[in-house]
Amino acid sequence: MRCERVTPPALAAGGDRRLPGSVLLAAVRVEGRLLPKGTRIDAAVADLLGAAARAGRLDATLRLAWPDPDDLHEDEASTRLARAVVGPNLAIGVPRQSKVDLTARVDGVLRIDTAALGRLNRIDPLEVFTLFHGQAVRAGEVVASVKVAPHLVAATAVNAGEAIAREATPLIDIAAYQPLEVAALAAESLTPGALERFEQAARTKVTSLHGRFAGVTQVGTEDPAEAALRLEAVLRRMVLESRVALLLVGGVSAGDPLSPFYEALQALGGRVLRRGVPAHPGSMIWLASLGDTVILGLPQCGMFSMATAADLVLPRLLTGEAITPDTLADLGHGGLLGKEMRFRFPDYARDLSAPE
To answer: Quick one: three-class SS letters along 180-202?
Structure first.
């Protein structure tokens, strides 16, 4: 890339003939028209600038760059990079001063290969910036942008960025919500009003994420042995026979290994994957599996009507993502879920109260 300042007198003396093929490095106003930085000067624009200079109507010195054979214009560079990083559920916008926005085509959860993103952004002068990995997003929402800093970029830099993106396949995408069947279980005695609130809260969350809600079952008794037997029967019917994809359980604490629920789960061959998560509020949520069903639990049924760490996990489960203990461990980064972090939650949770 060759750069040069061209003054109005130089243009008036015939310097305009050298302009076609160059790129403006700073905006200039001529004859009432604004030519923004990054403008590629063709013959018509060169004639416009030359005529204005000869008529004494151009005051600004032009700051220009001429590309080397392997240089790319900023818009071409950012568009190529955008095409490389996106998955099928993202739409690519048009470049504006080299910035290309990536927009969600579907409701779902943002998926980013953060390690690959870091490697790509270490290539000078490429820039890819996003919302948070695992964040619930809506169709039509801008979730990432691609940009390059200079107005002319060496093709070798873009090639290197494309290579990293191809390895990630894709580097950025949206995991769409799936119409999975979800049931709920209240493993504590609730008043009719409390049971209704639990069912309504669970239904609202599930259906907001495009799931199918199959209703709630209550199993509450003071006798642990009887409770374990009843819970085992309910789990067998709801999970092993009806085969719901996801079961939401309220009233079982992650910190109480003597809960009859865990006895029933173990009797059927299920297992607890994680007790508690590194996030607050909601650090006492837990995750288990039984057959092909994932089980997400909170210590109190009433917590399903509040905003907790469960509202970061539930959207990912409704995409069909296989949540692992490692997935939950990663919640620690950004796990202080105060009001200022509600943007990471689905719409339904952004105005809910939080447990004390």
So the answer is: CEEEEEECCCCCHHHHHHHHHHH
Instruction: Say what the pTM is.
Output: 0.90
SS3 state of residue 313: helix
pLDDT at 63: 95
- How far is the C-alpha of 307 from the C-alpha of 205, rounded, in Å? 11
Instruction: Kindly state the helix (H) or strand (E) to which residue 172 belongs, with its residue range.
Output: strand 172-176
List beta partners, residue 86: 172
- DSSP classification of residue 86: B
Strand order in the sheet with 142-148: 90-92, 100-104, 142-148, 126-130
Residue 245 DSSP label? S
Residue 15 has pLDDT above 90, yes or no: no
Q: Per-residue confidence at 223, pLDDT binned at 50, 70, 90?
A: confident
Residue 252 has pLDDT above 90, yes or no: yes
Cβ count near 237 (within 10 Å): 12
Q: How far apart are CA 273 and CA 249, in angstroms?
A: 15
Using CA atoms, how far apart are residues 252 and 39, in angstroms rounded to an integer?
Answer: 63
